[in-house]
Known about the structure:
four-stranded parallel sheet; single chain; nine-stranded antiparallel sheet; alpha+beta; 15 helices; 429 residues
Amino acid sequence: VAMNRAKQSTAGKAVKGKAGERVIRYKTALHNTIFDVLRARGWQEVKDDGDWDFYWCDVCWMREHFDHCYLEEHQRVCHFRNHYELTRKNLMAKNLKRLKKQLEKESKLEAAKCDFFPTTYELPSEYHIFVEEFKKHPGTIWIMKPAGKAQGKGIFLFRKLKDITDWKKDDYFRRDEEKSDREPPETYVVQRYIPNPYLIGGKKFDIRVYVLVTSYVPLKAWLYRSGFARFSNTRFSLDSISDAFVHLTNVAIQKTAPDYDPEKGCKWSLQELRLYLTAKHGHETVRRVLQQVDDIFIKGLQSVQKIIINDKHCFELYGFDIMFDEHLKPWIIEVNASPSLTASSPTDYELKVGLLEDMLTVIDMEGRLSGSEKRVGGFDLLWNDGPVASDEVALHCGQPPTYSTNSFLGCYNNREEQLRHLFKLSPLH
C-alpha cells in the first residue's frame, strides 16, 4: 500500500493537501509503475515548467539540462550526472579493469575478488588487442554487445573472426575520407562468452537485483531483498550460437519466442531461486555465493566512486544483472541506470510497486527517518562508508566484519510489516 501521508516539503511553496499539510510536487518522464506509485503516495503532479520537489527524469534530461539549472536544497532527481560511467558497457569494463589494477598494487586478496567480469575489449579502439587474444584461444566463443543499447538489441555470438567481417567493413576499416562523411563507428564491447552457465531445468538464467545509491561520497548503498531470475525460453546448448532464445535472457527477446507463454512468463522471484539453491546446495553454500554477489555490487560502485559527480540532489536506482556459472561463481553482465519499471505480470507489478514505494521512503522527501536506519521496507543498508553489520551480528561479534552482513537478498520481504513497525517507533511520524 502506498504511503499517502506526505509531510511538509522544505520547499515551502507547495500546494496544500486535504488535511492542510503541504504536498510534495513531482514530475515524471515515465507513466508506468513509477507514475502509479507517485500518485498513490499523495504527492501532486506538476507538468511542463511547474516548480517541482522530486523529478523522475530520463537520462536525456540529465545530459541536456542538469548542468544548467539551479536546484534548491530539498529537490531530488533520480540520476547522478555521469551515471553512464557504470551503466555503459564499455565504461563499466574500463572502470572495473582500473579498479583491479589499483587493488593489485595494494592487496592481492582484494584484487582476487575482482575476478567477476569476463575478459572484455572495446571495439573498435581495442580491436587489434582483441585479435591477439582471440588467436591465443582458438575455438572460444565471444559475444558482441553495442555499448549503449539495452534489451538485448544488437547482441550476437561468434567463434570466428570472419563472423564479424560485416561489422568491420561497415565501421572499422573505412578509409579516412569516408569516415569524415559518416557517423563515427558505433562502440561495441566484445567479451569472452561464459560457456558453462548454471542451468535450472536445462535453461540458462540471470538475476536482476536492485541497488539504491543515495551518496557516493561517502558511499551509501541499499540492497533490495526482492528481485527476479530471468530464464531463457529454450534449453541451453552450444550447438546453435545464433539462437537468441537460448543465449539471451532479456524479457524483450524471450517474449518474441514462438512458444512463449505470457501467463507463465520466464521469471522466478529471488525468494524462489534462493529456496531452490538452498535445497540443492545447502544453506552455507548459498550464503557464501550471495556474499560474493554483494561484493560485486560494492566493487562495481567503488570502481566509479572517484569519478561519479556526487551531488546531494541525486540518487540512483541501479538494476544489476548477474549470472552464475556451473560452479555457482557469480559474474556481472551489466548494470542498468534505467531498469525497466514496466510490469510483465501482476506479480511483477507488485514487486516494482513495493520497490519504488520503499525507494521513496529511503529518499525521505517527507523527513520521517532518523538517518540511522539499517532497514527501510525491503531495502537493507549494505554499505555506509564501509560494511554494515546486521543487528543480529553486532550483538554476537566483538569485531566488526570485513564484509557487510546486513544483506538479505532473496530472503522473506515483509516490507509492509517492517514499515509499520519503523514508523510506530519513529518520533517523527
